[in-house]
Design a protein that fits this description.
The chain has no helices and 29 strands. It has 336 residues and is mostly beta strands. Keywords: Signal. This is Gluconolactonase.
Length: 336
């Protein structure tokens, strides 16, 4: 995952996309929730049942009450967290990058319920729709750990290539995984536990965020060079490149509202893509803050939550800037 910097003022800009784009709901930055210090952050997920937002942080998981729009605090202990995913039964699955493990935590108090050893630098993680199977992308090991989330044990490991980022699972049991080092999308047959031929992504540099729209059978990958790559799931073909902002790290899909949102951290914008029609079109742009590069959707309300902070200068030239203490926050973007 790439880290990016500073803050920006909040405003909404929208525009007409080329061609006859469908009408797009107006969105705005409606609230800012201050959160606890805890180092860096990465992926976030909403539990719409318990009205909680979970954010993977450097050493713990930050919890936000989405209904009250307030920080609850931080729970659990992890070593450089990258992803956190809510599971049935009041549990969380979190990747712990520095010790090659996946930790299962209680949502009530962060108590560790179990731990699974995986490949080197576990990064992104997703679960099957029923929550029973977890998929952990081990970035440096170049492998995917397939995990039984109830038994908290590894079912199998599929070897791919180093550089793995976010993934998407299709209904036929195919797992697509972005590879930021190879500029391609890896393909896994989950039922067989085997790798298929990767999908080349010419024109897409360092793909990171990924989402799958089942209605149109389209994968949307966020690329570091200001593009979103559109791939057809059934034939594994790149069909389109869409202009987006710089520094994206996630694709946030809202299938109900037929939109995809890509937070672009370097430009400090949230780009809005329409999923309707024969091609994907960018139909809106929301000014957010530089550094807001990941996020999560509340499927019920349509609200989008974007973690960010203010940053100081790096300690030395070329080093990664560090978030200023006391500035971590979550921007809440809502339909107007």
């Amino acid at each position: 995952m790439k880290r990016v910097l500073t803050t920006a003022t909040l405003a909404l800009t929208s525009f007409a996309a080329a061609g006859a784009a469908p009408p797009t709901p107006a969105y705005r930055v409606a609230a800012t929730i201050s959160g606890p210090d805890g180092g860096g952050w990465d992926y976030a997920r909403v539990d719409p049942v318990d009205h909680r937002l979970f954010i993977a942080r450097s050493t713990s998981v930050t919890v936000i009450d989405t209904r009250g729009e307030r920080a609850v605090g931080s729970i659990g202990t992890i070593a450089h967290g990258h992803a956190v995913v809510p599971l049935p039964g009041g549990r969380l699955m979190a990747t712990s990058g520095d010790d090659a493990s996946v930790r299962f935590l209680s949502t009530s108090d962060g108590r560790e319920l179990g731990r699974v050893t995986v490949g080197k630098k576990p990064d992104a993680a997703i679960v099957s729709p029923d929550g029973k199977t977890g998929f952990v992308m081990n970035a440096k090991a170049g492998s995917v750990s397939i995990i039984d989330t109830a038994a908290m044990r590894t079912l199998r490991t599929v070897q791919l290539k180093p550089g793995l980022e976010y993934a998407a699972l299709t209904p036929d049991g195919t797992l697509f995984v972005n590879n930021e080092d190879a500029n391609e999308m890896e393909v896994v047959d989950v039922r067989r536990g085997t790798a298929a031929a990767p999908i080349a992504l010419p024109g897409c540099a360092e793909p990171s965020g990924l989402a799958y729209d089942a209605k149109t059978d389209r994968l949307i990958a966020a690329c570091a060079n200001g593009k979103a790559a559109i791939v057809t799931g059934s034939n594994h073909k790149l069909s389109q490149l869409v202009d987006i902002g710089a520094g994206p790290d996630a694709v946030i899909l809202d299938p109900q509202r037929r939109l995809a949102f890509i937070p672009c951290g370097k430009d400090g914008v949230l780009d809005v893509l329409s999923l309707e029609g024969t091609v994907v079109k960018r139909v809106g742009r929301i000014k957010t803050a530089v550094g807001a590069r990941t996020g999560a959707l509340d499927p019920d309300s349509g609200a989008i939550y974007l973690p960010t902070a203010s940053f100081g200068l790096p300690a030395k030239p070329g080093a990664r800037p560090v978030a200023t203490l006391g500035t971590f926050k979550v921007l809440v973007v809502k339909p107007a």
